[in-house]
Amino acid sequence: KARRSSLDTAEQNKYTESRVERMALKQEVSCTGSIESNLDVEIKCKASGQIISVPYDVSDPVEKGALLLKIDPVDEERTVRQSEVKLASSEAKLAQAKQNLLISELDLAKTRKETQAALTAAQASSKELRAKAQRMISLREKEYASPEEVDSAESAAVQGETSLTKAVAGLDGVKVSEEKLELLRQDILLAQADVDTCRIDLENAQQRLKETQVFAPVSGIVSERLVQIGQIISSPTMNVGRGTSLLTLSDLSRVFVVANVDESDIGLVHKQQKVTVKVDGFPDDSFSGEVVRVATKGSNVSNVVTFEVKIEVLDENKSKLRPLMTADVSILVAEKADAPAVPAETIKRRGPNKGVLTPSHPGGDPNEVVVKTGIDDGTHVEILE
């Protein structure tokens, strides 16, 4: 009987009674990440040369459009002057070609009128002389004219026809002059093309001169400075090595945390969930934020799959945060102010089901009841059904 009493006591000690209690529950997904700025702009210079001015240093605030760097412009200024001289020369040649065409057109108009007048006169003279020669032949047949007079009239008629032939040939000369005018027009087109080319060269030279100064494309903070005054830099457009990096400008108007969430928890994470961020640099501060992006594709490192989650820090003290700070992140995935809950160790898994043990009659074994659970904060679990 004493032995049976000892067994009953041992059986009772196998179980610890817990009660369902109503409490506030929060379920969070914890992970780590790093602080990132809204935008990091790597600043390079399209021109090559020696740096003569770098007015900003690391951590200096910069407004959009501010002068970040200046290169010695002497070579580019010389190229601009050379291009201006070439353009002026080509424009003078174009003006000369146009003037030559104008003079040739005036000469051609004059020649055309003179040739036409000469042709008209030659036609009239030849007709008149030929008619006179015919009359002299008729008079000779009637013996009213001497043979000498007939020969003289015939000679004059032939001369008149020769003059007419020359006048007609003069028209061919006018046509040749018209063809020469076409060549002069082609010279103008070539001169105009040369002017256009020189103008483009000048614009390119002026652009390269402007490129000796680098201006801030955005407002931000200088997070990195890689060059000094006197250093010679190379252009990314002319160098296969992508040119010299000068500065990095960080836009901190918005601050983000990029965190890696384990694949077992990623199903709980969604956009617009509230987030608490803590960093070692400010151990007494917590920064509030919100999930803004959940990666579709995971990353596998050493057979551990994680998903990238981007969180925007919305706290009014976010200016304290600096890029690349390590951040501890707690993503609030569920919250209830008054939930019926039991300690997490009371939940038992049986395949796909979860269950708890409930008391039976005194001295009897407990009953196992299947339950549906909700929020799990790691120490307590909500009982839904």
What does this structure look like?
With 385 residues, this protein is α+β, with helices and mostly antiparallel strands. It has helices at 2-12, 74-141, 147-210; strands spanning 21-44, 49-53, 61-62, 67-71, 213-215, 220-225, 232-233, 245-262, 274-279, 282-294, 299-301, 304-313, 326-343, 348-350, 353-358, 367-371, 373-376, 380-383. The strands form three sheets. A six-stranded antiparallel β-barrel has the order 1-8-12-10-9-13. A hairpin with an 8-residue loop joins β15 (353-358) and β16. 19% of the residues are buried.
Summary?
The protein is an alpha+beta fold and 385 residues long.
Order of the strands making up the biggest sheet: 1-8-12-10-9-13
Mean model confidence by pLDDT: 87
Counting DSSP E segments of at least 2 residues, the number of strands comes to 18
Q: Could you tell me the strand content as a percent range?
A: 35-45%
Q: Could you list the spans in which at least 5 consecutive residues all have pLDDT below 50?
A: 1-7
Question: How many distinct helices?
Answer: 3
**Backbone shape:** elongated
How large is the radius of gyration? 51 Å
